[in-house]
Amino acid sequence: MRLNIIIGGRAGQGINLVSGIVSSVLAQQGYFTFNYRDYPSVIRGGHNFNILSISDQQVESHESSINGIVAMDDLTLEVHKKELKKSGFTIPSDKYIEFGINLNIALAGALMKTLGIEKSVLNQEVKKVIKNNSEEALKAAGFGFDSVEKKFSLNKLNNNLTIFSGSDGIVQGAINSKIDVYFGYPMTPSTAVLQSLASSQEKVGHLVFQPEGEIAVANMALASSFAGARTMIGTSGGGYDLMTEALSLQGQSEIPLVVYLASRVGPATGLPTYTLQGDLDIALRAGHGEFPRVVIAPGTPQEAIEKTNEAFYLSEKFGALSIILSDKHLAESEYSFVEQTKKPLKIEIKRPIPGEKIVKATSYEHDDFGNTTEAAELTFKKANLRLKKYDDIKKECEKLETIKFHGNQKSKNLIIGWGSTAGAIKDAIKGLDAKFLQVLYLKPLSDNIKTEIEEAKNVILIENNLTGQLGRLIREKTGISIKNRILKYNGLPFLSDELQAQIKKELKI
Predict the structure, then answer these.
(1) 345 CB neighbour count, 10 Å cutoff
(2) Of 66, 188, 225, 351, which is least surrounded by CB within 10 A?
(3) Whole-Å CA distances, 251 to 234, 320, 322, 385
(4) Domain boundaries, the chain
(5) Which residues contact 505 (CB under 8 A, 6 or more apart)?
(6) C-alpha distances in angstroms, 2 versus 17, 53, 68?
(7) Is the backbone of residue 61 left (phi > 0), alpha (psi -120 to 50) or beta?
């Protein structure tokens, strides 16, 4: 069973509240959901919509055809009616206008009835979500519920589900790592992590600070980490560009630092509220000089929890730069999943104790005591030590899950992808003779990738960017050029049904 429902309207009308209430109730009923958010870069107005995908099995993407439309304005019906299946339903806002600010609650009630959810379950969720004027909200929900006919019967399933966005996963991973300080400057789509960590700082015990800009963010973070605090920073696009000088300072000073890079469509301002996997190259290489780093790209909130913890672990263990690479699609989409409890890696802080000896950190080449040097022999030695550190990191990563396989494990049809594309790829290959190799660590890159490519009959690279940046990285590391590519770069994520058709065409099946 699979349903795709559009909930649309203008910014400020409470679209996210509708999808939030509905997806929360469905999760309680044991149904998997995936909630995709689409919105222009405006505060009020514009055309905003969510696509809520519902299934009795794991779902991590949305499709091109729609089973239903919940419209808070006429524009939503006008724009999306062509995507509606012949058997689809619409819930327009006309009959609920009288409820004013509770219009969204009334529409949520109507959608719940359409899906066949009991009214008592709806009322319970509304009471939990709406703290003020709950009586008016319940009245609106009840009216919406009674105004439509039931079209589906989503009987309760025995699944214990959690709903997280990718940003929630990053936050939980940081908290599991016992983060001490987070520095950030608001920039979509990284802002959600800044806001969430800020709202939980008194309860959990970490500190969140917003300096005057991204250059200050990165430099203050290095000072914080130098003092012994588990430190993380976050940014997107141009903000990361501003930080790159400080990232080189990290490479020279070897002060541990974790960076959350939530990619957005570039160059420059680009499409600030849409998605693209365009920043892999800068994650791998940004900063002058040559120094070791780790680049990790989770594809789900659950992976974001685990990989953020690993980023802290590797950064502290090796005095390295750890970059967690995400994008708008992963950061802001909401996934329901069966949570798998995995004990976080223990993060040990190893800083010299002030008072025991003089401690120096410098941007200059230096000896083991932090004293500046320009001696050729010592410069050569220190450069080799940085290379040795990367080898040590690579060896440590062999203990971690750097790649993951999905689909038919014996298939000779190999699909390679990374990050937020993982969800659409996993959904697209259901029922196909295909194996999906998901790359979780871009640096260090697993040696097993070359073996998998050589053993496959057909190989397809799938990326949300213009040039196939992972493909270029694989060619650099293995000498293998992947010819068959499915690339998308219009600011929108892959749709699983359209992607399946493209895969079938490539494989000629």
Answers:
(1) 18
(2) 351
(3) 18, 7, 11, 12
(4) 2-146, 164-397, 403-507
(5) none
(6) 22, 7, 12
(7) beta
Q: Cis omega (within 30 of 0) on the bond before 272?
A: no
Q: Domain 2-146, what fold?
A: Pyruvate-ferredoxin Oxidoreductase; domain 3 (3.40.920)
Q: Is-above-0.85 flag for pTM?
A: yes
Sheet holding 403-407, edge to edge: 403-407, 435-439, 413-418, 458-463, 485-487
Options 3.40.50.2300, 3.90.1170.40, 3.40.50.970, 1.10.357.10; CATH for 164-397 is 3.40.50.970
Same fold for the domain at 164-397 and the one at 403-507? yes
What letters, b where the CB count within 10 A reaches 16 and e where it falls short, cover 283-312?
bbebbeeebbbbbbbbbbbbbbbbbbbbbb
CATH architecture of the domain 403-507 equals: 3-Layer(aba) Sandwich (3.40)
Angle at 196 between CA 123 and CA 266, to 5 degrees: 110
Report how far residue 285's alpha carbon sits from residue 263's, in angstroms, rounded to the nearest whole number.
15
Return the residue matching tokens 């194996």.
Answer: 435
List per-residue pLDDT tens for the chain, 509 residues long. Answer: 999 999 999 998 999 999 999 999 999 999 999 999 999 998 888 999 999 999 999 999 999 999 999 999 999 999 999 999 999 999 999 999 999 999 999 999 999 999 999 999 999 999 999 887 789 999 999 999 999 999 999 999 999 999 999 999 999 999 999 999 999 999 999 999 999 999 999 999 999 999 999 999 999 999 999 999 999 999 999 999 999 999 999 999 999 999 999 999 999 999 999 999 999 999 999 999 999 999 999 999 999 999 999 999 999 999 999 999 999 999 999 999 998 888 999 999 988 776 677 778 999 999 988 899 999 999 999 999 999 999 999 999 999 999 999 999 999 999 999 999 999 999 999 999 999 999 999 999 999 999 999 999 999 999 999 999 999 999 999 999 999 999 999 999 999 999 999 999 999 88
- Residue 69 pairs in a beta bridge with 6, 90
